[in-house]
Amino acid sequence: MSVAVATPQAAEPVFHVVDEHAHPEGASTMLGFWIYLMSDCLIFAILFATYGVLGGNYAAGPAPKDLFDLKLVALNTAMLLMSSITYGFAMLTMEKRHVGATQMWLAITGLFGLAFLSIELYEFHHMIHEGATPQRSAFLSSFFTLVGTHGLHVTFGIVWLVTLMTQVARSGLIEANRRRLMCLSMFWHFLDVVWIGVFTFVYLLGVLR
Amino acid sequence: MTLNSAPVDAHGHDHGHDAHVAAHAHGTLKSYLIGFGLSVVLTAIPFWLVMGDVLGNKQVTGLVIMAFAAVQIVVHMIYFLHMTTSAEEGWTMMALIFTIVMVVIALSGSLWVMYHLTTNMMPAHDMIRR
């Protein structure tokens, strides 16, 4: 970038950026997507704060100790962690432009995501079956809102994943698709970061309480 | 490692401010595996501490597992989300720092204020618990 200033030779001074450089398509996508993730982070922060405030109000109902099965949560955490590393492998194979391997790792990631969701839905179903519904107490309302919002994010992540697999199958690992896969990568790893907060603050500290 | 593999990058070199998609770093197999290994350890230890009641003191256990969570979040940020101070000319880091400040204010503020409200105005929840 250079700004032409009035020089003896130049008759008319130019006060704008002369060499307007090109901004290729998608140049700011990653930063924009990161800022979206940060705003999503604020949503989760508020839900965590709500849970932190209301998490002790059982209204004479069930407490975390009666409801949470840590073995199940550990399994769930493992599923999400595995899906994170397999998505990493998908990114590495994407770099090498191996369409088949990328698709395979994406599919495996999706399956781990589905396993996570299934276990979570099983847990919710079990809790609701025992009468621990979101309406039961402030603790349960905030619990279902926080964990449910995370689960909803994972659900949409899987929908997005399937969409991108279809896109890659149709037009290969073109630049647009690689960019999209990188956005989903950030989204997916971000959900894993949020889950660290969930299993620590909701489940582990809940059982300790 | 950049998205635009080697030759395409000429433009990006001339203009440092053109931090394209290319500026977004990727991990290597090694960095992903290191991150994964650390995450497994940092996840397993808190679960072990709580499930096995290893420390025998709830408050200490709580503080320790929170410390583990904080470390694991940093590990994920570095090895999976590839956060660096230089990505996108530091703007991702700026956004992250701003978000962390907001999160800390929202979380600590809510807990602090509401804790005092609870102790001042409502029967302690221990009294009405079950």
Automatic annotation (TrEMBL), chain A:
Residues 1-207 form the Heme-copper oxidase subunit III family profile domain. Keywords: Cell membrane, Electron transport, Membrane, Oxidoreductase, Transmembrane, Transmembrane helix, Transport. It is a multi-pass membrane protein. It is found in: Cell membrane. Its main location: membrane. GO terms for cellular component: plasma membrane. InterPro entries: Cyt_c/ubiquinol_Oxase_su3 (IPR024791), Cyt_c_oxidase-like_su3 (IPR000298), Cyt_c_oxidase_su3-like_sf (IPR035973), Cyt_c_oxidase_su3_a-hlx (IPR013833), Cyt_c_ubiqinol_oxidase_su3 (IPR014206), Ubiquinol_oxase_su3_dom (IPR033946). One of its GO terms (biological process) is aerobic electron transport chain. GO terms for molecular function: cytochrome bo3 ubiquinol oxidase activity; cytochrome-c oxidase activity. It comes from the Bacteria. The chain crosses the membrane at residues 33-53, 73-92, 104-122, 142-165, 186-206. Heterooctamer of two A chains, two B chains, two C chains and two D chains. Cytochrome bo(3) ubiquinol terminal oxidase is the component of the aerobic respiratory chain of E.coli that predominates when cells are grown at high aeration. Has proton pump activity across the membrane in addition to electron transfer, pumping 2 protons/electron. Belongs to the cytochrome c oxidase subunit 3 family. This is Cytochrome bo(3) ubiquinol oxidase subunit 3. It comes from Rhodopseudomonas palustris.
TrEMBL record, chain B:
It is a multi-pass membrane protein. InterPro entries: Cyt_c_oxidase_su4_prok, Cyt_o_ubiqinol_oxidase_su4, Cytochrome_c_oxidase_bac_sub4. Keywords: Cell membrane, Electron transport, Membrane, Oxidoreductase, Transmembrane, Transmembrane helix, Transport. GO terms for molecular function: cytochrome bo3 ubiquinol oxidase activity; proton transmembrane transporter activity. The chain crosses the membrane at residues 32-51, 63-81, 93-115. It is found in: Cell membrane. One of its GO terms (biological process) is electron transport coupled proton transport. Cytochrome bo(3) ubiquinol terminal oxidase is the component of the aerobic respiratory chain of E.coli that predominates when cells are grown at high aeration. Has proton pump activity across the membrane in addition to electron transfer, pumping 2 protons/electron. Belongs to the cytochrome c oxidase bacterial subunit 4 family. Heterooctamer of two A chains, two B chains, two C chains and two D chains. This is Cytochrome bo(3) ubiquinol oxidase subunit 4.
